[in-house]
Every structure is written in C-alpha cells, then in structure tokens.
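2.7 Reproducibility. Because tokenized structures are sensitive to small changes in the input, we list the exact sequence used for Iron complex outermembrane receptor protein, including any N-terminal residues retained from the expression construct. No trimming or masking was applied before prediction.
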Amino acid sequence: MKKLSISMVLLGAVFVSAQEKEKETQIEDVVIVGNRNAKRTKIETPVPVDVISIEKIQKSSPQTTVQDLLNYLIPSFNSVKQTASDGTEHIDPVSLRGMGPDQVLVLVNGKRRHTTSLVNYQNTVGNGSVGTDLGTIPVIAIDRIEVLRDGAAAQYGSDAIAGVINIILKKNMGGSASLNYGITGRNDGETYQAGANYGASLGKKDGYINLSLQLNHKGKTTRTQNHNLDIFGDNFAYDFADNPAAARASDDAIIKERGLTRDDFNFQIGDAQIRQAQLFFNSEYPFNDRFKLYSFGGFSIKEGEGFGFRRLPSETSNNVKSIYPNGFQPVLGSKIYDISYAVGAKYNVNDWFFDLSNTFGSNTFIYDVSNTVNASLGSKSPTNFKAGSHSFLQNTINLDVSKNINNFNIAFGGEFRFEQYDIKAGEEASYSRYDINGNIAVPGSPVPVEGAGGSQSFIGFSPNNALRKSRNSTAIYADVSYDLDKKLNIDLAGRFENYSDFGSTLNGKLAVRYEFVKNYAIRAAVGTGFRAPSLQQQYFNNSYADISTTGNSIVTKGIFNNDSEAAKVLGFDKLKQETSVNGSVGFTLKPANRLFITLDGYLIKVKDRIVITSNITDPRLVDYGVESGRFFANAIDTETKGVDLVVSYDWKLAGGNLNINLAGNYTETKITDFHFPANLQTPQNEFFGPDQINIIETLSPKTKATLGLNYGIGKFNFLVRNTYFGKVIRDGYPFGGVQEFAPKVVTDVSVGYNFTKNINLTIGANNVFDVFPDLQIYENSYYGVFKYAPVQMGTLGNYFFGRLNFTF
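Resulting structure tokens (single pass, no recycling of outputs):
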C-alpha cells in the first residue's frame, strides 16, 4: 500500500483534502472523482476533494454505517435518523452543502449508482426527494471514499448539483474481520455487527477478486414522554391538561382496575429496528498488459420495523374495540432488496485508454403492516396486511476514452441509461373500505359504512396506484485538462444529454487552480448543472394516514402524480428539469511544516427546484376520497451559499503522534422565488407553507464543525472528538408552533489497543455526555408523545461500543 506522507486523521481516519498533501514526498495517488485525467493526483485538483481511508475508521469509530461515518467526518454532510415516518425511518436521507438528497450523486468505483425507490414525503429533511441508500454498501468492503464538494453535472450528469460521493471498493489481498457490539445508555438500540473481507489474486498479473460479507442488527429505541393521555376518554388530548400529575394518577387507577399495565398504552417512538445482510465483490482479470476485464457489485437485504401513531380506544373510526379494547400502535415492517452489478473492459493502445462498462442496479421496497386493523371491516378485520411495494431499476452503458498528451489530457465518451419505476398493489383489505355487509363501499350507496378503510398507519397501494413507467437518456461529454508543472491546473468540461420524457440539456464547467507561491494556491470553478425529475417524483402516488389539518384526529390524505386527473383539475404543470449555476473559490495553504489549511466558499443557485407541496385542501379533492392532497411541482428557486474550512496539524509529542483536525462548514439556503400553477385556487400557505419552507431553509444546521484529537503511541490509540451542531428551527405548522433548537456539542471518545499486529480491540462511546436536542414544545410534540425532534444529532443519546478487528 502506498504511504501517504501527511495524514489528516479525523475520527481515526485518514482524511485527506486534495490540495493539502506535503508535495516534497507526495506519492502519485490518482483521484478518480472530479476529472477523467488518469494522471491527476490529489494535490492537483482545482476543486475540493476529500479522501477518507476506511481502515482506521473501522477500528475506532462508534458509527457502523457509511452515512453515519460521513455525518461525523464531513461537516457539510448531514444525515439524521427519522422516526414514525413510514419508509423514511428505514432509509436515512442524506444531504451535502444544504442541498437535497437527490442533488448528491453517488458513484461506486467511478460508476453511477442507482437511487432507492423510496420517496421521502413525511416532512423529513429531503422532503419530496429520492436519494441513494449509502447503508446498502458494507463498510468492510470499502477501501476509501472520495467526496467532491463541488457541482459536477457537466461531468457526470443529473444529480451532481451539490457534489459527488465516490465509494472505492477494496482490492487488497489477504483477509480482515471485525466484530462489533454496542448499546445505548438507556439499554436499548443494541447493535451487533460482524464483517469479513478476503482478497485473492486472479490470473498471472495484477488480477484480484475481493469478497465482503457483513451482518448487522440494530435494535429499536424508545424516546417518548411520560404518557398522560386520556386513554379511555372521548378526546385525544391530555386529561387534566393543567395538572399532569393528576392525569397520570387517574389513568394509573383505571389501568390497575382493569388488570393492565401502563406498557399496554405506551407509544413506541424512536429509531426503527433494522436487520441487514450484505454481500459485495470487486474483481479484475488482466488478459495482458493492454486488456482487462473487471466486475463489481453486491446484494443487500434489509428488514426494518418501525411504528406508527398509536390509535386510542376512543378513536372509533380508526379502532375496532373488539380486537383492540385498549387501542393499538401499528407496526410498519419493510423488506428492502438492493442489487447492483457492473461489468466492463479496459483497453490501452498507443496510450489511448478505453473503458466500456455496463452498470445495473435495482432497489425494491416491500411493505408489511401488522398489529393493525381495517376499521371498516369491524371484528372481521385481519391484523396483518401485505401493503404492496415499489421498485426502481437502472441500467447504464458507458464508454470513456482518454489520452494524455504532454501537459494535456483529453477525455470524451457517451452514456445510455435506462430507468424503470414500478408500484405494485397490496392485498385488497390493505387499501379498500367496506360497508357493513362486508362489500367494497361504493360512493353514493345507501349501505352504511363504519370506520376508516385500509390498513391503519400505512394504507396499502391500490390498483389505482399501481403502475410501471420507464424512460431512457443518452449523453455525450468531453473533458479537457491542462497541467503545467503542478503550478497551474485547468479543467474544461461539457455535457449534452437528452431524456426521452422531457428533452435535452447542455451544461459546462470551468475549473482553475494556480499555485502563486510555493505551498500557497488559489482555486476556483464555475459551471451549470441540471437535475432531471426522477421517475419516482413523476409517478409516485398513494393514500396515507396523517394528522388532520386541525391537529385533533388522524385522517386519510393523498399524494397525486402529475399525470393524475386531480393534478389536471387543479392546474398543475408537468415536471421539468431543475437547472443550476455553481460557483466556488478557495485557497490551500501550508504556512508551516505539517500544518495544512483549506478554505472554500461556494454559491449554488437552483431554478425550478422540484419539491412536494404542502397539504392542499381544495374542495375538488373530496371526490378523490382524501381530506387533502400533495403534488410534486417545480415550485421554488433557491440560493445556497456557504464556506468550508479544514485545518490539520501533525505534532510529534512524547514519543507518539498527535493529529489535530478542525473542520467546519457554514451553509445558508434561501428560497428566492415561488412558481404557482396559474389555475390553482389555494393560498401560498397550502401550496408551499411555512413547514415546507422550514425544511428547505432552517431544519438542518447552518453551522457544523468538528475538532478531532487523535493520539497514537506504541500499541495504543486515543481519540477525542467534539462535533458542534448549530441551531435549527422547526415549524410545526399547521397545528404546531415555531421552535428554535439551541446549538449542541457531541463528544466521542475511544481507546484502541493492538494486542498483536493482527488483533486490535477498541472501546469507546458516541455522545458520551448524553446530549439531546432541546425538548420539543408541547404544540409540536403530538400531545407530549414526541419528546425530542429528530434534528441535529438525533435522538439516540449516548452509545457505548466495543470492537475487535483482525487481519490475516
């Protein structure tokens, strides 16, 4: 393995900012992401690229998934686990530089990775967007992660507005294994993880095959208020609201009289339970010095178990007392199958490099709802339902051609991508409403209907929701780069892309780096970008249970796609692409030996950004069986500006090495314009209300910073890291209030010991001082149930772990 001369150790990882390596002893490690120059090294990229080595992360980090690791390594990266949010609590939404999950492109070995089939629509971060599930890739399979913190749509196409995350799989020989156990300070959220990696040579020269297997189990957590709900009353509210102690005493007396316990009425609010198995491979076979075949990919199966809002005994329209006399809390189960496979060939003739590949990926999300009822069936209702599924498939054929001529590198290529999106209906009882005779209710029929239809908490997909849609896109692109004695670097890129469903787009980018004095350089970039509306955004539609606009009951609401009759009646336009302009300027400095500083500012303007609207209560929607409806629309323009700072210093201290890292980010996003459908008869607060504006502008921390101290001496390694999460604001509109959550600091610690060169034990804690976001104000807490909002560091609290690492 090549030795890096200066490392920026953050959380025990090697965190390398692209221009910050000590030039005198720099080994020529090529950065794959951000350019197609086969000889461009880390110190020469004119845009910020962070390179994170995974080996030491695996030893010392409390975090066990890719998205959690990046959340504590890259300050401009954010990922928070959600709760009681349907599928979103099973796949964590992630963001970079304050943009949406669908504005970050993910690559594996430099090839585009597919997104999930899930649309986030439960008013979480990334509402209305579709991201990539980083958790499907096992940490033990990863050699390093490259994070390009700059727009790159002109190079890679749609989704690269905020930046690119490129995950490089291992190709080393030999084996390694890891055993991890963790638990929170509240004795829940138990985590078990076991992983193994093994690599062997393949063929006579430089060939390899590398296999990884990882098994994970993460237990559920409970983070609720004490429950003083009027569990047997007629109202969904606190009994004796002004005297909670009296309310609790009253409820306890009733519970005891009926021979029950308070646990029979508890809400399960916290992180979902997740079980997962992952198998990945990476291989290359050289036939000779000119021709190689390669292949990589993997399979992941994830089973989740989350919880919906509790239905109380008094809610006669949502509960069947003969089945659940004390009410019930539905359980939403998921099975998520993720498959990826790439195969390609590399050929070199007269220093012309050809790379032809086919990359396939699919994600299928299956819903099961248990401990619930279809209230319209009364006592005949089942309590378990198959609620349907959705899936997304992507296949990309790609050709890259490049040649280095003196100081110039010329690259060009083409790409053809096919995408398909499916929604499959669940069983009939999961979505239907029945009359008192057990027949499907017919609008206008005189036969009475009692109770809400469909499976409570998650209404199944109906045949009216089911669909299969596809599209394709064709692109051609070219990159030209110029390097002069490692002093001046210039990149120019252009890309033309045509989509079968909305037309063509042409984008370009110019990036420059100039070292004006030894160890002092300036870099800048400007480019245009685009993001095509995903098939999921164009066609996802369903009915779902949610809190009513008045806030005192649970009702059925709907999401309608832009091809629907409802969208046409209300005057919604067809979705079109988002367009963007990115600009950045930065400095890289080495003012002293072993001290490295980078400072980068950026501006991102997005026009016609695709979002999901607020709940629109237009009376015309009553005909579609919902209280209100939501629609995807190019509803807003946004402007994002910010700055990234990274400082690293290595210090020889008392016979060991102390690495000090300070990394910080400030990001601010503002909505600069709204686009209302011309015929829509609704006020702005219903089209895109304060709650949706809040998600875009202030629900994620504007400021985030990390100070890491990593000290290695002899067989020991010590880590102390503080992460600062800036303030956030949460707007509970339409039935809650505006609350500001104060900044918080989370402290991680770990101690590692090498018993031998092959065996390491690390113990430590994430959030050792048990820091939580501020308690929610009552108006936003769903009658006191949601004690904490899933913002900033989330609601896990302190978490303690031990990990054994082996190499062989």
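The CA atoms of residues 311 and 328 lie 5 Å apart.
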